[in-house]
Design brief:
GO terms for molecular function: calcium ion binding. The chain contains 8 helices and 65 strands. It is mainly beta. The strands form 10 sheets. A 9-stranded mixed sheet has the order 47-49-51-53-55-57-61-60-59, with no helix packed on it. An 8-stranded mixed sheet has the order 19-21-23-25-27-31-30-29, with no helix packed on it.
């Protein structure tokens, strides 16, 4: 070991010490070496490193390039020795040397804890992780696919080693890789780098370099000089950063051969068989840039960037991300689905073929979507005045004017993620959905502050009025309208729409289709009172001094429940399925028709499911649960929750869940009581105990109506987790039909000759139940109240 390593090794020891102390030690070990390693041996290494005992690490020997070749380092498990390149030690930085030593220690660790060499370059993975660097999936997969095995000859002995990357010198180097995946760096000088087989990374550095990828999908990058790049077979990528250049860039590209040139000032790079320029950065001057025949997209790196200056950038084929940045730029997407970012300046953006995405900053811009479904997303929230938009649904064309700037667009079908100003705006959606588009951005139209008018047009739209008194029009499709604060008007129009809102006196019209109103009043400072007309699906919701008025709303709460206040509420469901939550307070909740979920939550609540298959959950408190008004053709789930609950299976007029068919057993309509507690809860039935039967099946008691003769007994309820119930016990309560009063009529005199002077007096007398008022309705000019006695 040379003396030049003496100041390096303590830094290596420090990295291992802190790694052994880290919470991610075991997870990172698994990432580098798999899951089948010897835990006992790994624990020994961890404990040794935690105590700063590094005596077990292999010794280091420095070899000439004649022996080690172009590798920076290698590890031989047969010798338990690390070999380092002499030329590498003489030219590399301390950080680079530390990284290579850690990589070889990674190979050593693998040899200690795994009986078989881990797949790929586990040493490189280990070196990154122990230094706290994260590896993305693509990099990790590439490292795991590498073949880092080779042989060297030391003192006449052939030794199998795992090697580090190939790095040249500041002179003129000729480096040839292997059939595997190689990382080759030429550094300064006029270098010749050959990757041969595999997916190689070739970096020429400064100088006039010749880079040959060979077989496989290779990656090239370079610095100054007149360079020649040949991608070879496979899909090859050339990434260069010209942002520090002192003049503009001119590029040529032949899509048939993947060949062309890049000229900046007096230097020209010539390339062949290059299919992608992902991560390419132009100068701060006027550039002409082309993409390749494959993608320059966000799936990998950073697309094509123009920098400052008036740039012309053409993506050609593939999925391209093109950034004009500053200046008056012309961006052409080309074939396939592209994303064009104009930046500041007066830009011209052409999507061409494919489903394209556009966004921009300041300036008077012109956007042409081209064919297929194109999307324009812009954020005007920082503007100093309101926005006015026009839109022609036939051509997908229109304008957006904010202050003195106007953007003009054609063939734009969607505006998802569009944000208005903090002033009064007029915004339109496109003819397609304002939804998630091309994997990027949330599909929404947002008004911002101010009194906005936003129309979604066709498609499934998400429209947010935000603050202000807004008018939101959903148009066709399944739209979601969020009014926000203020007195808003929300019109769903056609389609199955969803509405939600915040403070204010709002007017909501669902329009055609099955429409849903979702709201959360749990923040309110007083209780909620709701009305609902099942014939028109209309009603009101009043909380304090604010009242929302709605029409054509069929459901309340589905994805999220309709939430009441923390006080006493009166809540109704719609004529279709609902999810209703009362919150705290003593609430009365009625589901009406449809399959409903009703949650009483805290408080003494009264829950009525109505028609349909309902799920009622009382929660905490003394709750009353009635799953139906008749129960014919439906089954309901009843869960009372804690404390004393009342389950109503019949009232004074009928027994629920009786289908009325004498030949069936009622197995199509019944209630399921999940948590009946005989100590606390009560089941209400009509009639008397002799009208019913109990049977037991497993852990469930079945409750039947005791039908006469040969008529099948009628199932009306399953009572879960109960096997010893008695119909005469106090937890069964029976109600009967009320006794109706008897009313007699007496007329005096019983016979009279009508001469116009004698009155007939009608006397009505009740016996029995007389708690209610007796009212007589009469008509005719000869009858008056004075002639009626009501007793």
């Amino acid at each position: 070991m040379t003396s030049s390593l003496l100041p390096i090794l303590p830094a290596v020891d420090d990295v291992l010490f802190y790694f052994a102390q880290s919470d991610g030690f075991w997870a990172n070990l698994e990432t580098a070496f798999g899951t089948s390693y010897d835990v006992v041996k790994a624990t020994e290494l961890q404990q040794q490193w935690q105590s700063r005992n590094f005596s077990q690490l292999p010794s280091i020997e420095v070899l000439s390039d004649e022996v080690l070749g172009t590798a920076n380092g290698a590890y031989a498990s047969s010798k338990n020795k690390i070999y380092l390149s002499a030329s590498f030690l003489n030219t590399a930085s301390s950080a680079a040397i530390i990284n290579v030593i850690l990589e070889e220690i990674g190979h050593y660790v693998d040899a200690q804890i795994n009986p078989v060499d881990s797949a790929g370059d586990e040493g490189a993975i280990f070196a990154e992780l122990v230094q706290g660097n994260s590896l993305d999936v693509a990099t990790l997969d590439a490292l795991r696919a590498e073949n880092d095995q080779t042989t060297i000859i030391v003192n006449g002995e052939i030794i199998q080693v795992e090697q580090a990357d190939f790095t040249g010198t500041n002179g003129n180097d000729s480096i040839t890789g292997t059939s595997g995946d190689d990382n080759i760096s030429g550094l300064d000088g006029n270098d010749t780098l050959s990757g041969l087989g595999g997916n190689d990374n070739l970096s020429g550095g400064n100088g006039n370099d010749s880079l040959n990828g060979g077989d496989g999908s290779d990656y090239f990058t370079n610095d100054a000089g007149n360079d020649t790049i040949n991608g070879g077979s496979g899909t090859d990528r050339y990434e260069v950063d010209y942002s520090s250049a002192s003049s503009g860039l001119t590029m040529t590209y032949n899509t048939a051969t993947g060949s062309g040139t890049i000229t900046v000032g007096t230097e020209t790079d010539t390339f062949t068989s290059i299919e992608s320029f992902e991560g390419f950065k132009g100068t701060e001057y006027n550039d002409v840039i082309f993409g390749g025949t494959e993608s320059e997209s966000y799936y990998y790196y950073a697309g094509l960037k123009g920098g400052s200056g008036n740039d012309t950038i053409s993506g050609n084929a593939g999925y391209d991300d093109i950034y004009g940045e500053d200046g008056n730029d012309v961006l052409n997407g080309g074939a396939d689905n592209d994303r064009l970012f104009g930046g500041s300046g007066n830009d011209l953006l052409n999507g061409d073929a494919g489903n394209d995405y556009f966004t921009n900053d300041g300036g008077n811009d012109t956007i042409n979507g081209g064919s297929e479904i194109d999307h324009y997303k812009a954020d005007y929230s920082s503007a100093s005045s309101g926005l006015t938009m026009t839109y022609n649904t036939t051509t997908g064309s229109g304008t957006i004017t904010v202050g003195t700037e106007t953007d003009t667009f054609t063939s734009i079908e969607s505006f998802g993620g569009f944000k208005g100003t903090e002033y009064n705006d007029v915004i339109f959606g496109g003819t397609e959905s304002e939804q998630l588009f091309n994997g990027f951005g949330y599909g929404q139209l947002k008004g911002g502050s101010g009194n906005d008018t936003i129309s979604g047009n066709a498609g499934d739209d998400q429209i947010y009025g935000e603050d202000g008194n807004d008018v939101l029009n959903g148009g066709d499709g399944k739209d979601s309208l969020f009014g926000g604060n203020g007195n808003d008007v929300l019109n769903g129009d056609l389609g199955n729409d969803k509405f939600t809102n915040d403070a204010g006196n709002d007017t909501i019209n669902g329009g055609a289709g099955s429409d849903i109103y979702e709201a959360d009043y749990s923040y309110a400072s007083s209780g909620l009172t709701m009305t609902y007309d099942t014939a028109t699906a209309s009603g009101t919701i009043t909380v304090g001094t604010e009242t929302d008025t709605f029409t054509s709303i069929e459901s309340f709460g589905q994805t999220s429940p309709f939430k009441g206040t923390e006080y006493n509420d009166v809540i109704f469901g719609g004529i279709e399925g609902d999810r209703l939550s009362g919150g705290r307070g003593n609430d009365t909740i009625s589901g009406n028709a449809g399959n409903d979920e009703i949650y009483g939550d805290d408080g003494n609540d009264v829950l009525n499911g109505g028609a349909g298959y309902d799920d009622l959950r009382g929660g905490n408190g003394n709750d009353t649960l009635q799953g139906t008004n008749s129960g014919i053709g439906e089954s309901d789930a009843l869960r009372g929750g804690t404390e004393n609950d009342l389950f109503i299976l019949g009232d004074t007029t009928r027994v629920f869940y009786d289908d009325g068919f004498s030949t069936t057993g009622g197995t199509s309509d019944y209630a399921i009581i999940y948590d009946f507690n005989p100590t606390d809860d009560t089941i209400q039935l009509r009639g008397s105990s002799s009208d019913y039967l109990l049977t037991v099946s497993g852990s469930t008691t079945n409750l039947y109506i005791n039908k006469p003769g040969s008529e099948a007994d009628e199932l009306i309820a399953y009572i879960n987790n109960q096997t010893a119930l008695s119909l005469t016990a106090s937890y069964f309560s029976y109600v009967s039909s009320p006794t109706l009063p008897s009313i007699t009529l007496a007329v005096a005199p019983s016979s009279v000759t009508e001469d116009g002077t004698t009155n007939l007096v009608y006397t009505f007398t009740r016996t029995g139940s007389t708690t209610s008022a007796l009212t007589a309705n009469y008509s005719g000019s000869r009858i008056c109240a004075a002639h009626l006695n009501l007793c």
